[in-house]
């Protein structure tokens, strides 16, 4: 469903759960679980960034670019989240207070994870996202052309708000969420506890099936390498096409240019 980047089917649905944790803190698992409990589509920002159309990714980029323009941010968030029952990951973890204002009935769920384990997963992602040449590399691919800019602005915002991206940034982010979200709406959970915490939060029965488990870290590097390979392939086609056109033009000029 929405965890795989699908567009919303029923736009009348509203966000009921706001995932407040950093990327690589069980954000996909949270979406999958809430999709089941709420019988709706989830919005995992990272997955949608890879699968959705150019317009979606442009709006994610604009969230950070115009982050000081609150009316514009609220409108962009409304357009991006319409029809989904849960949000998580980039860019939405950066706009928890705004999402709380937009969806006053939604509950905020912060998945707590061991900082050292998290940074082993997140460190490589942060490094890749801030590699400058990637913006040019991904430019030919609709959607992806915005992804590096979005990630860079996200990490820049993190640096501005939480000093820098390091082992302690998760704790600082959690404290920022605690300070900005009303206590009666904030729930700090661990995925190791399974269905019970989320079912209590949402006041629904525990499903008779295993709790979902998605290990994003195992696939992150492979996804990144596939993105690089696809982009390089497209650039190769551009170079070959340009070479053929230039060669054809030279041949025409050499053989017929003197007749013009």
TrEMBL record:
Q: Name one Pfam family in it.
A: Sulfotransfer_4
Does Cell inner membrane appear among the keywords? no
Where exactly are the transmembrane stretches of this chain?
234-253
Instruction: Return the InterPro entries for the record.
Output: P-loop_NTPase, Sulfotransfer_4
Q: Kindly indicate where the leader peptide sits in this chain.
A: none
Alphabetic keyword roster: Membrane, Transmembrane, Transmembrane helix
User: Is Transmembrane a UniProt keyword of this protein?
Assistant: yes
Identify the PANTHER family for this entry: P-LOOP CONTAINING NUCLEOSIDE TRIPHOSPHATE HYDROLASE PROTEIN, P-LOOP CONTAINING NUCLEOTIDE TRIPHOSPHATE HYDROLASE
Q: What is this protein called?
A: NAD dependent epimerase/dehydratase
Protein's organism: Hypocrea virens (strain Gv29-8 / FGSC 10586)
Traced from the root, the source organism's taxonomic lineage reads: Eukaryota, Fungi, Dikarya, Ascomycota, Pezizomycotina
């Amino acid at each position: 469903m929405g965890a795989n980047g699908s567009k919303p089917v029923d736009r009348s649905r509203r966000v009921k759960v706001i995932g407040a944790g950093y990327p690589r803190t069980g954000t996909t698992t949270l979406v999958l679980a809430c999709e089941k409990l709420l019988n709706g589509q989830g919005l995992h920002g990272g997955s949608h960034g890879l699968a959705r159309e150019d317009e979606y990714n442009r709006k994610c980029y604009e969230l950070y670019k115009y982050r000081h323009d609150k009316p514009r941010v609220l409108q962009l968030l409304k357009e991006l989240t319409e029809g989904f029952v849960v949000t998580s990951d980039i860019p939405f973890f950066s706009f928890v207070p705004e999402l709380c204002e937009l969806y006053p009935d939604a509950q905020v769920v912060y998945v707590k994870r061991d900082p050292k384990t998290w940074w082993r997963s997140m460190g490589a992602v942060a490094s890749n996202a801030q590699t400058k040449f990637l913006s040019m590399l991904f430019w030919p691919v609709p959607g992806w052309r915005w992804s590096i800019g979005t990630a860079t602005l996200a990490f820049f915002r993190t640096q501005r708000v939480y000093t820098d991206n390091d082992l302690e940034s998760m704790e600082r982010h959690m404290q920022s969420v605690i300070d900005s979200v009303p206590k009666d709406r904030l729930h700090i959970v661990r995925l190791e506890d399974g269905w019970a915490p989320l079912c209590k939060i949402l006041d629904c029965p525990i499903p008779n099936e295993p709790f979902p488990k998605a290990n994003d870290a195992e696939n992150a590097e492979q996804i990144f390498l596939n993105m690089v390979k696809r982009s390089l392939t497209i650039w190769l086609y551009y170079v070959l096409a340009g070479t053929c056109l230039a060669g054809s033009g030279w041949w025409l000029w050499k053989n017929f240019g003197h007749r013009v």
